[in-house]
Amino acid sequence: KREQRKLSRKYESLKLRNKKEKGEATRQNIQKQIVNVQKIHQRLTNIRTDYINKTVSELVKQKPSFIAIEDLNVKGMMKNKYLAKAVAQQKFYDFRTKLISKANQNNIEVRIVDRWYPSSKLCSCCKAYKKDLKLSDRIYKCECGNVIDRDLNASINLANAKKYKIA
Fold it and tell me: What is the enclosing helix (H) or strand (E) of 126?
């Protein structure tokens, strides 16, 4: 952010001083700043890609019989102006393709569960459906007495899903 702001200020000062003769030196400084911003973006991309590679290899090294993932509506998430930037940076498609290829190399089945499967709203013990579950509810509480973390509950439900596609 900081380097991007510097670049923006350099462009603005060039607009103001466009009539003066110092334009050439300023343009060189702008080019240097563009390179700095590009290097930072490349570094962040490399960090994210490295994290994906390490996570996928860690999952595959455990040698499970199958890996279940949820088919997410990424296009719909990108329409949300608050989530769009974070979703785009996570590289969900890249993660999925790398996971599938690495799992196929190691003879691990990848199950893709439908995006409409209510993995978060089902109780992993009694299979009761909870309609009024909000995203802010981080702990799933059921009438059967089951109190569990919401994400853990969803992952158990994904593992136990009956309908799925094999990638």
Answer: none
